Amino acid sequence: MADQNDVLLEVKNLRTYFKLTEGTLKAVDDVSFNVRKGRTLGVLGESGCGKSVTAQSILQIVPTPGRVEGHVFYSGGKSTIDLLTLPAEGESMREIRGREIAMIFQEPMTAFSPVHTIGNQIMETMLVHDTTATKEEAQAKAVELLGRVGIAMPETRIHEFPFQLSGGMRQRSMIAMALMMKPKLLIADEPTTALDVTIQAQILRLIKELQAEMGMSVMFITHNLGVITNMADEVAVMYLGKIVEIGDVRQVFKSAMHPYTQALLLSIPRVGRKEKTRLQAIGGNVPVPLDPPPACGFFSRCSRAVPGRCDAGVPELIETQPGHFVRCVLYQ
Ligand SMILES: Nc1ncnc2c1ncn2[C@@H]1O[C@H](COP(=O)(O)OP(=O)(O)O)[C@@H](O)[C@H]1O
Ligand SMILES: [Mg+2]
């Protein structure tokens, strides 16, 4: 584990369940990890593994009927606070969401309202959270940031509406808006999945540059292993609401231990390959964690499953090498 002074966000025993008529859907089930100051944690896993709900839980924006339990210790201020003890709609949590922890998504149209100009929306972030800022200051800052994220003629662009911009430009504008208050943590949830590879590479480079400049931490969520290799210092591999492997990114990919991580490595997406064929190496899909049995979640798809052991209980997460943890009976 990292030196505690080094940790910006400590997520501990996070559980997010949705009580549905069909049963209890355990979207996030006892997840713990650290995001270190100035570093990038990659969160890797196929669609449906619980990555987005983990991010939503940290910011307390899980849709109803989701219930979040556990701890999210945030050390960006003078003292450490457990964000989950703050009322979700209270002022402190709004402050955290607006100026301490910012989030960007795959679909920028969810971040922007279609009826206001890009400039007004970016400026609004500053005007709401910094009551001493004037409109002129906010506008100057918005223009500066839009230029910084690579938008040409930002002083003209700020007067445009979201639909007037290309997908790549909207994505850049959302990053500009997220960075307006210089957040200490940026949560990026599949921010480049919808973009073509050239623009994806530009955006990834941009996030890295801005991170180095501002010293912020990043939690980078993706199903794309190549992106994790490019962006992350540490990686948490998620499967069915649980972390199955976590550690230093080079260490984990050099000697992947969990059969799920190994399978992901065999299915590295290559340029030009279609999305659908990416995870060919793993048969089937991620199941829905509705009242999941007490077993390894990967049991049904695992080529190395040991019947009678893997389906007899949930394996513990154990440290196999310093800082490298795996949840699999093969190593217990
Ligand atoms: N609002 C919701 N209500 C009920 N179930 C949800 C909701 N959001 C996500 N889930 C379920 O939680 C699980 C994890 O989803 P999610 O975190 O979105 O996965 P990922 O981001 O890794 O693709 C999935 O089984 C999904 O169907
Ligand atoms: Mg998601």
Specify the number of helices.
10
Inertia-based shape: globular
Task: Please give the alpha-carbon distance between the first and last residues.
Answer: 20 Å
Class from helix and strand fractions: alpha/beta
Enumerate the spans where pLDDT stays under 50 for 5 or more consecutive residues: none
Task: Give the oligomeric state.
Answer: single chain
Query: How many distinct domains?
Result: 1
Bound molecules: adenosine-5'-diphosphate, magnesium ion
Explained architecture:
This protein has helices spanning about 50-60, 90-100, 120-130, 135-150, 155, 165-180, 195-215, 225-230, 250-255, 260-265, and strands at about 5-20, 25-35, 40-45, 65-75, 80, 100-105, 185-190, 215-220, 235-240, 240-250, 320, 325. It contains ten helices and twelve strands. The chain is about 30% helix and about 25% strand. The protein has one domain (about 5-115, about 185-195, about 215-330): P-loop containing nucleotide triphosphate hydrolases (Rossmann fold, 3-Layer(aba) Sandwich). The mean pLDDT is about 90. It has an eight-stranded mixed β-sheet, with helices on both faces. It has a four-stranded antiparallel β-sheet with strand order 2-1-4-5. Strand 4 (about 65-75) and strand 5 (about 80) form a beta hairpin. The two termini are about 20 Å apart. With about 325 residues, the protein is an alpha/beta fold. Bound molecules: adenosine-5'-diphosphate (ADP) and magnesium ion (MG). The site of adenosine-5'-diphosphate (ADP) has 15 residues, from strand 2 and helix 1.
